[in-house]
Amino acid sequence: MAFETAKSATQSIRQRLTRLYYGRDTAAIRFQFALMIIDIAIIGFFLAGPYLRDRPSYLILDYTIAAWIALELIAQWSATYPARRYLMRPMTWIDLFVLCTLLFPQWLFNFAFLRVARIWAVAQRPVFTLMLNRLGLKEQTDVVTAFINLFVFLFLVTGFVYTFFFYREDAGTGFIDALYFTVATVTTTGFGDITLPGTAGKLTSIVTMIIGISLFVRLAQAIVRPYKVTFPCPECGLQRHDADAVHCKACGHTLNIPDDGL
């Protein structure tokens, strides 16, 4: 009897978490919005890390954030059916690695720059898309997503360059130099006043230029191309169509795309 009661209570908690994480009612939206605000505060702490790491309060904040991320990982795992789908998400493994860097900062501090990848967690919240819609930015969703991808890449590379090439400099100066180098490399400006030494530095510059320019092109495409909606064609499965499309451009099947009740 006690086992059945505990099982029923666990099932009820999981259903409530699922509704809060993936629902669209008022309570779910408020919950998701609160999580997004917390995510943004955590990202702010990560970006300020080079300036705060020598302060006594740094480890307190570090372990507090670790406890929060661990709690949210457990909650998301409980809210996702089946659990295998949750484990297949790239963001799950990024969060797990970020958690490790928080729990063992003395040994994994060199990989702390990966924490900025949690910006993707903000963009993946259902409430994020809802906010864009309410702000009248529904047609710019692809642009915002492309900009976030570029922004995350810039700070990932900046963190990597700072950690492995500018770590001997003052935290403030070293981070700014790393950011300056990254932006100059990604934009292919190449002033040459700050360069990375050795073969590792050249390889880092090559990878940064190739991926960075690809993300720039992706952002430019999102800005100039016509807005498209995600609506799978029931005949051929094509996902993207013009918002006012009547027929699928791949197979000619008649579409019934909802208007801005979407």
Give a brief description:
The protein has helices at 2-22, 26-47, 49-52, 57-79, 83-87, 90-103, 105-108, 119-124, 126-134, 141-165, 171-186, 198-224, and strands at residues 228-230, 240-242. It has 262 residues and is mainly α.
What topology, given as strand order, has the largest sheet?
1-2
Task: Report the strand count.
Answer: 2
Average predicted local confidence, pLDDT: 78
Radius of gyration: 22 Å
Total count of helical runs of at least 4 residues: 12
- Specify the biggest β-sheet: 2 strands, antiparallel
Number of structurally distinct domains: 3
Pattern of helices and strands: HHHHHHHHHHHHEE
Which structural class best describes the helix and strand composition? mainly alpha
Sequence stretches where pLDDT stays below 50 over 5 or more residues: none
Beta strand %: under 5%
Helix content: 55-70%
Outline type: flat
- From the N-terminal CA to the C-terminal CA, the straight-line distance is 46 Å
